[in-house]
Design a protein that fits this description.
mainly alpha, 3-stranded antiparallel beta sheet, 6 helices, 7% strand, elongated
Length: 121
């Protein structure tokens, strides 16, 4: 029989993930983590929250909003390093297309600015 996993405090979770306590509270308040309140009113998290926080951070770093992440199935939110699952492929493609449009726009701006500098010289 496996040993029950003991809950950890928000400080422990912050230490294990590198996320700030404020970020963890924000993720919890937005329904991305599940905490329970101890008798003293402190939030307590199961060890799986370490994986969840790391995956949330990873998804935020690729440009997803908390609302979008909240809509992702467990295959994306519960598995650290999960790159994709069938239910999220389309939203990931749209995000990539958006990023590629932004890059193209920035490259055009850079080219215009370079041209302006050449014309002044």
């Amino acid at each position: 029989m496996s040993k029950p996993q003991s809950p950890m405090t928000i400080g422990d979770l912050a230490h294990k993930t590198g996320a700030s306590r404020r970020s963890i509270r924000h993720y919890d308040d937005n329904g991305l983590l599940a905490s329970v309140r101890a008798e003293n009113g402190y939030r307590m998290f199961l060890p799986v929250a370490v994986t969840q926080v790391r995956q949330i951070q990873r998804l935020i770093a690729t440009g997803f909003s908390l609302a979008e992440i909240r809509g992702f199935p467990d295959c994306m939110r519960m598995i650290e390093g999960a790159a994709a699952c069938p239910e999220t492929s389309e939203v990931q493609r749209r995000r990539l297309a958006s990023i590629e449009r932004q890059i193209a726009d920035l490259e055009q701006r850079r080219a215009r600015l370079r041209q302006m500098l050449v014309e002044k010289a």
